[in-house]
Specification:
single chain, 388 residues, alpha/beta, Nucleotidyltransferase, domain 5, 6-stranded mixed β-sheet, 13 strands
């Protein structure tokens, strides 16, 4: 991009509306979602989507980020730089293509370690984005909540409330990323009911890793749920998976690759021992049913009747898997399952949009941490600001 005068915090804070970029790489590590939004100042209950893009994660970068034994310090430091530069490259391409220069960037970064209520680590140095785009960057959204006694996740429930809250009825928001996250939003007039949000269990993370193992690395996912659709869930194995005590714990509850990553799939394959293609299809069907049952159980056990949910609004990459969506719809019936597009929220872009809105809220000093979700002692500002 041509040399431009950097936008300073005071200048961006004074803008209403402002153009905000949002960047998100999820626990599945399949790629980078980028959005450019026009956002009003203050609590961001609406936005205008100006442009978006998806950058597939290079295979060698993904492999470097997911070693079984964790990252050495030097490796982590180099990956922090490499991810930051990759984020800047991707956003610069989107800015050039769209003609919209951001005033602010919200970048979640790539989670490489998350220990519930103890610590968290996201890589992707924001200084590269600030330098390349010439504007402030909000990143490292989780640590303030952890310092206040919270678990640092999930963070999107407040955005679900901003965008999906309705009078007279509750709404359940489901995100099907690497992990399945649920938000319970009470009716707008029920100020006595807290916002609820927690991780239900694995979604794409286990299915995608199974696809890589089945295909010897040639496939990154079970496209359209085709393999799962050919199989039948193994009842005994499914019951064992559902008995995992981590999935029965009381919220606040956050899950990730540490619980359901490649080591988990190693143990699953050792238990299942698929010997034929049909065995593999049955295993995909079991994993899909596992996700659906985790979600249905979480709704039944963790969402009080007073929330009066009228529908389950789904977003995230798992929405593109019709077999997974079919199983979830059957598990939660008669509660209707609808894609978030029905509410004007593109399902594939929800998390990138969320971190753009959280960045804008951070600039306006809106405390977006939710103690009823994370267990923190108080609502905190989310994110640190980097200027060039």
């Amino acid at each position: 991009m041509p040399e431009v005068a950097p936008r300073r915090l005071a200048e961006v804070r004074a803008k209403d509306p402002r153009i905000v970029a949002g960047l998100m790489t999820g626990t599945s590590m399949d790629g980078l979602d980028l959005v450019l939004l026009r956002v009003p100042a203050g609590i961001p209950r609406r936005f205008e989507l100006l442009a978006h893009a998806h950058e597939p994660m290079p295979a060698d970068l993904r492999a470097a980020l997911a070693p079984q034994g964790g990252l050495a310090l030097a490796e982590a430091a180099r990956l922090d730089r490499r991810l930051g530069a990759w984020f800047a490259d991707g956003l610069e391409r989107l800015v050039r293509a769209s003609g919209h220069r951001p005033d602010l960037v919200g970048c979640h970064g790539q989670t490489v370690y998350h220990e519930h209520g103890v610590t968290t680590c996201q890589l992707g140095e924001p200084a590269f984005l600030a330098e390349r785009l010439g504007c402030p960057v909000v990143s490292d959204f989780r640590r303030n909540d952890i310092a206040a006694g919270g678990c640092g996740a999930p963070l999107v429930p407040i955005v679900d409330r901003w965008l999906l809250e309705r009078p007279g009825e509750g709404v359940l928001a489901l995100n099907l990323g690497g992990i399945a996250n649920l938000t319970a939003i009470p009716p707008a007039e029920r100020a006595d009911l807290p916002l609820l949000g927690f991780d239900c269990g694995p979604a794409n993370m286990v299915l995608d890793e199974l696809a890589r193992r089945f295909s010897a690395g040639r496939a990154a996912c079970d496209r359209d749920g085709a393999l799962a659709a050919r199989g039948r869930p193994r009842a005994e194995l499914l019951d064992e998976l559902l008995a995992d005590p981590r999935l029965l714990a009381e919220p606040p509850r956050s899950l990730g690759r540490e619980e359901f990553g490649s080591a988990y799939v190693d143990r699953l394959l050792e238990r299942a021992r698929p010997a034929s293609e049909q065995d593999w299809c049955d295993l995909f069907a079991t994993a899909s049913a596992f996700t659906a049952r985790c979600i249905a159980r979480a709704i039944a056990r963790r969402v009080p009747a007073a929330y009066r949910p009228a529908r389950l609004v789904a977003s995230g990459g798992g929405v593109r898997n019709p077999e997974l969506a079919r199983r979830i719809a059957a598990a939660v019936a008669p509660l209707p399952l609808v894609a978030s597009e029905a509410f004007g929220l593109p399902s594939q872009l929800k998390e990138a949009i969320a971190f753009a809105l959280l960045a804008s809220a951070r600039l306006d000093e809106i405390a977006a941490g939710v103690p009823s979700v994370t267990g923190a002692r108080r609502a905190v500002l989310l994110g640190k600001i980097t200027e060039c």
